[in-house]
Amino acid sequence: MTLMVQLSLIGALASGLCSGSAVSGPPQVRMGRRERLAQTQLGAEGMHSLPALLHRNAAQFRDAPAYREKEFGIWQCWSWAETSAEVRSIALGFLEIGVEKGDHIAVIGRNRPAHYWSMVAAQMVGAVPVPLYQDAVAEEMAYVMEHCGAKYVVCGDQEQVDKVIEIQENLSQIKHILYTDKRGMRKYDHAQMNALDDIMAEGNAGHARFDAELDKRVSAITYDDTCVMLYTSGTTGKPKGVVLSNRNVIESAKNSADFDHLKRDEDILSYLPMAWVGDFIFSIGQAYWCGFCVNCPESAETMMTDLREIGPTYFFAPPRVFETQLTNVTIRMEDAGKLKQRMFHHFMAHAKKVGGLLLDGKPVGFGDRLKYALGNMLVYGPLKDTLGYGRFRVGYTAGEAIGPEIFDFYRSLGINLKQLYGQTEATVFITVQPDGEVRADTVGVPAPDVELKIDDTGEIYYRSPGVFVEYFKNPDSTASTKDAEGWVATGDAGFIEEGSGHLRIIDRAKDVGKMADGSMFAPKYVENKLKFYPDILEVVLFGNGKDRCVAFINIDLTAVGNWAERNNIAYASYQELTANPRVLETIKSHVEEVNKSVAADEMLSGCQVHRFVVLHKELDADDGEITRTRKVRRGFVEDKYADIIAALYDGSNSVSTTTEVTYEDGRKGSISATLEIVDAPVVAATQHKVAAE
Question: Which pTM value belongs to this model?
Fold first, then answer.
């Protein structure tokens, strides 16, 4: 492609591939930016709690933005001084309704400043905040609130209030329900229920009675007091309450902020579940330590638009978010004109060649640099703005492996995306990737102040200032997970590379097994390879103790649905689409490619997929098949779909099944389907080796 042709397509690209404009920074509120010119000067002395950090921020960064929330299409902003006043008002309100030291306060709802403030206000009065997943059904909420003994609940809206009322008959300890959104709440019995705004007003009105008591409770907080209690996802049983201290949260926030040079001028978008440890450390721990701004989207539906408007400098997302964005880019390019497609693929090929090298500061020739700069003007820059990553300085993905192709795509654009490895019990950080040492096949080196070791079975252990205090009311699990010297068993298997010191994860230790012939069975290794394809959403591999492996596959409805529409393929439901012969053939080709890749690894070559079915429904958290953080509950799935697994192994060509499902309103139902069983080509390890030679 000539330079003249490239330049002539600038306008076409801007109006086509990257239609729409992205705001280069947070909209509307730029006041107080003078305070953000200098890097945060921090000292740990005296900063032994979130309320102490909040007090410091209100004094030192008074007018700088602390929280933003988009409501009714308009961004509202609170400075650190205003945030401090709001949190204190909530704390006074808590005293007004009788919150005692040691009480547990459940917080349920979407990401909103008032919910984050409620968690810090709980700590101010000596209580323990317990955030819950807002999409959890009432039964799941009942278990958590009963287990922690929550006496007070802060709900986001009428939907969450209704769930609490539904289970309140069996939870006699609940004394008061608070809600942040007043819509639909007028006709409820308010004897033990109030709007959060109302109890704040009552607390402020009675501040003369409560000020001394509140100050006394705040001053009594120590570094080893409980900061928050977060419940695990419960992949193998009931969720466990992970108790994290102020020391855990603040030390982890400090170390991770120092590692990535986070400053006061960062902007983050807080959209992940508040019950997840990652959101707590990013949106509260690091935000309070560094003094940067937390931006809350209006809703899940507007998240991508809000992402573009804010243009975060520091961002976290699970692999699925990055995969979905890349799928959307691919779909749009397939619908673009030939010239746009040609330019996009031309410059992306060059980005793949040198983009990662430039990002890592490696030597690149002048000609390649010049061509990359032109590509940045024509393709990479507009594309990053459209995705919302125009101001992106550092970002992380974690939770599961991200596809190397997807990972390299973002880094080739100049987006400093990294992987981290962490757990709730570690207050997130176990390993991180230093700049210049970012790779798709490892999760990095030990985070600051973290020690790693691998035992004889290959299980990973760590020790750090972030190690949790205990599992609430579960001393046996605490003792089996954390030993007397503070070493924590991760439950994951892996090894540390000689020379680089990078950690490589193989699989969950409990999931690693052996095939009938004694070869290793590591399901996650194969599952992640298959999930790299944009039209595959989820995979579950079976084969432990068997002579061959079989798999369940969920298609990605968005990606496959768009493909069907472009090819004029009509379908009425997810179930109908999964049975389409062309869909099955496409998935079969993906399995065949993965089998060739797996065959190249002599240790894991026995994990190739011999047969598979495309399930007639998506694995769903409401049905107990996956956790709220989208981790597969293998044992449950294996029991629930035992008839399909049996058919995969007995040579059947199809299987008829009936599956119980849970609807959004909690009602139960069932769906029936006849699934085609697909045989996939496998490659003998020796055959692959000969072919390679």
Answer: 0.79
